[in-house]
Amino acid sequence: MRRSRFGSWLAITLGSLYFIVPLIGTFEFSLRMKRGTYSFEAYRVVLADPHFQASFTYSTLLALATIAVGTILVVPTAYWVQLRLRRLRPVVEFITLMPLVIPAIVIVFGYIRLYNSQSILPLTDSSFGTDALLCFGCVTLALPYLYRSVDTGLRAIDVRTLTEAAESLGAGWFTILTRVIFPNIRSAVLSGAFLTFAIVIGEFTFASLLNRPAFGPYLQLVGANRAYEPAALAIIAFVVTWACMGLIQVVGTVRDAGRPK
Amino acid sequence: MSVAESGSTTAGVRASSASVLAWLGVVPFFLFAGLFLILPTGFLIVGAFQDAQGHFTLANLAGLAHPSIVKAYTISLEISVASALAGAAIGFALAHAAVLGGLPAWIRPTLSTFCGVASQFAGVPLAFAFLATLGRTGLVTWALMQWGGINLYATGFNLLTFTGLTLTYLYFQIPLMVLILTPALDGLRREWREAAETLGASTGQYWRQVALPILWPSLLGATLLLFANAFGAVATAYALTGSSLNIVTILLYAQIRGDVLHDQNLGYALALGMIVITGLSNVAYIWLRSWAERWIR
Amino acid sequence: MTFIDIRNLKKSFGPTTVVHDFALSVERGEFVSFLGPSGCGKTTILRMIAGFETASAGSIRIDGREVTGLPPAKRNVGMVFQAYALFPNMTVAGNIAFGLKVAKWSNAAIAARVEEMLGLIKLPDIADRYPYQLSGGQQQRVALARAIAVKPEVLLLDEPLSALDAKIRVSLREEIRSLQKDLGITTIFVTHDQEEALSMSDRIVVMNEGRAEQIGTPFEVYNYPRTRFVASFVGTLNLLSATVVDAATGHLAIDGQHVLAAKAVEGRTAGDTVSVALRPEAVDFGGASEGRDALTGTVEAVAFLGAVVRIRVGLGDQKISLDTFNQPQLRLPTAGETVTLSFSRDDLLVVEPDGRS
User: Fold this and answer.
1) Domain segments of chain A: what residues?
2) Interface of C with A (CB under 8 A)
3) Which residues are within 8 A (CB) of B151 and not within 5 positions of it... i.e. 6 or more apart?
4) Which residues of B touch A234 (CB under 8 A)?
5) Nearest CA in chain A to C53
6) Out of B23, B148, B195, C209, which could bridge B144 as a Cys pair, Cβ 3.0 to 4.6 Å?
7) Chain C residues lying within 8 Å of B296, measured CB to CB
8) Chain B: residue nearest C77 by CA?
9) Which residues 32-61 in chain B show a CB within 8 A of chain C?
10) Start-to-end CA span in chain C (Å)
């Protein structure tokens, strides 16, 4: 309309500058490892570092485990709440939002005290137990995002009718969930999964305090001791995050394109 | 439902057994939430009121009055409030420009994709990025010196302070605000603006009396989320400042790693303080929202 | 005297022109409807009058005052939107008072005016309710009260009834019309519903593809549609193609059957094809008589519509529908039966092709 667009352009321009300059700064810095010339030396050093490979692999596996556990936990719950226990929805929603409000460091502090060697469930005694605890911690961190994503997906389909149709054809609960509901909310689950991946891959607090060799603590260690490698790692981390978000967009677009109307 | 067709007594029995079965379906979720969210938090809260022998005491809470701890809470609160308010204001300006600013259509999807990435680009890598940009040898620091003749660090600026950390936190705070506010701004119907215009209202009157009251709940919720986000952040601050900046999460981090307070249960009190602050901000939010949403259902 | 004077109004969005050279003058106190299918430009013209769209060319005057370049807030028009335009964060009283507060009325005057408005829309007890607590019909009445509270010179109604249930739609249109008459407020009403336009308006502007096809009273538009479009859009109509046998006497042939129109066919010569229109209710069973033409055909379908029975008769390649009142003693023809239909010559209209008004 007649309103001036100058203010809008100004806001967008200043905002873009604020967001892009650090990226340029980091990239430029990451190329400065060899004196007097730009090179990808820092990237070569980082990628060749066995600790990088080990920690990145560890975090990738952790992210995949988190996605698996989170999906198995969240999808049936969200489905069930939608189908049978609607009055429970506010409670479940409140719980899933709690990790956004309770600081992660408080939660992990509780884990360390609750599951230490003197407790009934001494998870931190074995490395597998600690890995499991870390995985559950990451599920907790991802819960708000995963649950919202799945819940939105479920609201978009008619859960009741689909379930009744499947029941009338003689399907059991497991079949309904895996063969009917899940395929219909696959793209919602996938968006939640990619977001979870982006969160877990750089997770620092849990992994560091549980003493697990994950990517986040590795990044911190490199940052404390090296000059140029951290910048290269920041760029790598940014690319990974970007890839996850890009995949969410792709999944979303495919879903929209597949829908009639 | 099919239950209604059978006799009333059997229907009653069946309905109750069915509802017991229905509750079984959410047991795994509540078990998980209990074990890995509520119980650990509750354990700390109880621990904050116990001494090393497990007896009730208020000494831990009294210990929070130690000047270094009060200072840590103060800086944490300052950074969280500043980055939440600034993030909310700037995020609002960006979301407004993208949704209602009359800009070309490609701006909006570009902005929201970028915000999706940036809101998750927190923690250690973000600290690296800002060190490489605004640190002593960072690109912007260098460029200002080279071309502007300004020695940024001589002006008193330091990335490892309140200002620096707030500036860094804004990198994920602003995008988060944009992501939450964009759908809310979409919810403002064109008719409301047009009705206000035909009734003689200016743009300012429309925003003050119609648009902002409608947006309050989203604005409040988003600002609270930003606050909690900054208040609980560890990785960014730790990677940026090591332990040179005394904020409460870093203090707690150090306590967990090495018992720097020489008192186990004081750590619990530290955690309790954080829970109380985020909890209170949440209560305030719920109260404000119910007031702001009195015109919805 | 002319109260709203619209001249040469044009609107283009990029290369597409949505309103072509529109002109209209509306008398003070008149109720004018813009009737047409969606996308015909009727809403765009209304929005240009309100000031939400800028005209590409032309002028709009209200009471002699040029408003073409003024922002909506300076035009002194009231507008009621299709739906959900009440401010959700304000009570009914707050909504009605909004424009008055903006105009800096005193609190006492505002309270009195709000009460007066609530009485006018016959909802005196809902002042403290929020919009979500009202039915759709109540919301639209409040929206109407909000629009007229500020005493606008012109009332603009943008399909205000189309989101409502059928019954409320009918009662509310009567209410709007009587309110408009009482207040004597000049009103422009946009609708795609011909029944609404016919029942409420002093005059109707029938629009198609950005042009006014015909401007006239409901009686004129219904009974004497000027173009094929008007004839087909307003009411149900039989449109038949006919060959001119003798233009001067109005002698036509429909599928080889000869009929006489009441008037000469202007601007055509023998052998030309023209469109003729015939309302279903103007057609009856029975042979030709004084002033009546007849056609013979085969019954294809009989549809029972309640008070009316609609019978479709095939005439060679073309079809004609006729409506007859449902009377228990009536013997209805059955499909396949051969029947003779007749109609008054005055009802046989030769219509122009579209866009020739």
Assistant:
1) 54-256
2) 52, 54, 71
3) B144, B145
4) 125-126, 128-129, 132
5) A1
6) B148
7) 88, 132
8) B198
9) none
10) 24
Which parts of C275-317 fold into alpha helices (H)?
A: none
Q: Dihedral angle at the C-alpha atoms of A192, A198, A204, A208, nearest 10 degrees?
A: 80
Q: Which residue has the tokens 């449109």?
A: C239
Q: What is the pLDDT, as a whole number, of residue C104?
A: 93
pLDDT range class, residue B126, cuts 50, 70, 90: very high
What structural domains and CATH numbers belong to chain C? 2-230 (3.40.50.300), 231-351 (2.40.50.140)
Which of A107, A191, A204 should be substituted to probe chain B, the one whose Cβ sees the most B Cβ atoms within 10 Å?
A204
Q: How far is CA B101 from the centre of its chain?
A: 27
What pLDDT band is residue B5 in, cutting at 50, 70 and 90? Answer: very low
Q: What are phi and psi of C20, to 5 degrees?
A: -105, 115
The residue of chain A with its CA nearest to that of C71 is A2
Q: Which residues in chain A are closer than 8 Å to B275, comparing Cβ atoms? A: 102, 106
Single-letter amino acid code for the residue at C342: S
A5 interface with C at CB cutoff 8 Å: no
Contact C34/C50 with Cβ under 8 angstroms? no
Which ranges constitute the DSSP H helices of chain B? Answer: 8-24, 27-33, 39-47, 59-63, 67-100, 107-120, 124-134, 139-143, 162-186, 190-198, 203-206, 212-231, 235-241, 248-258, 264-292
Q: Which amino acid is at B143?
A: A
Interface contacts (B, C; CB < 8 Å):
78
Partner B contacted by A105 (CB < 8 A): yes
Full 3-state SS string of C81-136: CCCCCCCCCCCHHHHHHHHHHHCCCCHHHHHHHHHHHHHHCCCCCCCCCCHHHCCH
B72 exposure class (CB count in 10 Å sphere: 0-12, 13-18, 19+): buried
Name the band, by pLDDT with cuts 50, 70 and 90, for residue B17: low
Give me the CATH topology for the region A54-256: MetI-like fold (1.10.3720)
* Low-confidence residues in chain A, pLDDT < 50: 1-2, 258-261
pTM of the model: 0.82
Q: CB contact, 8 Å: B44 with chain A?
A: yes
Per-residue pLDDT of chain C (357 residues; tens, 9 = 90+): 789 999 999 999 888 899 999 999 999 999 999 999 988 999 999 999 999 999 999 999 999 999 988 999 889 999 999 887 899 999 999 999 999 999 999 999 999 999 999 999 999 999 999 999 999 999 999 999 999 999 999 999 999 998 888 888 998 999 999 999 999 999 999 999 988 999 999 999 999 999 999 999 999 998 888 888 888 888 777 888 888 888 888 888 888 888 888 777 777 888 888 888 888 888 888 877 888 888 899 998 888 887 888 888 988 888 888 888 877 777 778 888 888 888 888 888 887 765 444
Q: CB-based contact (8 Å) between C73 and chain B?
A: yes
Of C73, C81, C152, the CB nearest to B201: C73
What burial class does residue C170 get, using C-beta atoms within 10 Å of its C-beta: 0-12 exposed, 13-18 middle, 19+ buried? middle
Instruction: Give the one of A19, A26, A80 whose C-beta lies nearest to B25's C-beta.
Output: A80
**Mutation target among B19, B30, B36 for the A interface, most CBs of A within 10 A:** B36
Q: Which residue of B has its CA nearest to A204?
A: B235
A22: closest CA of chain B, how far (Å): 5
In chain B, residues 200-219 whose CB comes closer than 8 Å to chain C:
200-202, 205, 209-210, 213-214
Cβ partners under 8 Å of residue A148, min gap 6: A96, A192
* Chain B partners (3+ C-beta pairs within 8 A): A, C
The residue written with tokens 């604005």 in the block is B219
* Backbone dihedral region for residue B259 (phi beyond 0: left; psi -120 to 50: alpha; all else: beta): left
C130/B198 Cβ within 8 A: no
Q: Say how far apart CA A248 and CA A181 lie, in whole Å.
A: 20
For residue C42, which of C153, C156, C123 has the smallest C-alpha distance? C156
